[in-house]
Amino acid sequence: MSLSDPIADMLTRIRNAQQAKHELCVIPGSKIKKSILDLLKEEGFVDDIQTVKNGSFDDFQVKLKYDTEKKPVIRMIERVSTPGRRVYIQSGEIRPFRNNIGTLILSTSKGVMTGKRARKLRVGGEVLCKVF
Question: Which PROSITE patterns does the UniProt entry name for this protein (predicted)?
Fold first, then answer.
């Protein structure tokens, strides 16, 4: 099955798994998805990421994170740039998202990184998603 937007599919799988209160979420693997998941782990939105073999392909098994009241840590995860409408931002236009609690994830010429890091390195790029 061919997907037109695999990143949006990944974000939807995470969103649906959290609504259903699942502990784990399995996502088909790719390099950009791995980079985004690593940033989510680094920023404290997910607990752990493991690579699982699925035949000749790799899948990612994401351990979701919940607070003490069993509410998901990720309150909102949203795709910004889509295949039909790319959204680019310059380094000077990167602003704090949700009072610095939220995170912008950008694809830049220096790799996939958070908005804070991109602003510090003074690089712009494509806004992949927003997480809060």
Answer: RIBOSOMAL_S8
- 57-77: b or e for each residue (b if 16 or more CB lie within 10 Å)? eebbebebbeeeeeebbbeeb
Give the domain ranges of the chain. Answer: 4-129
Q: Which CATH architecture has domain 4-129?
A: 2-Layer Sandwich (3.30)
Band the pLDDT of 2: cuts 50, 70, 90. low
Contact 72, 46 (CB under 8 A): no
Q: Own/partner pairs for 56-59, CB < 8 Å, 24+ apart?
A: 57/28, 57/29, 58/29, 59/26, 59/27, 59/28, 59/29
- The Cα 125–Cα 78 span in angstroms is 17
Which tens digits make up the pLDDT trace of 3-55?
799 999 999 999 999 999 999 999 999 999 999 999 999 999 999 999 999 99
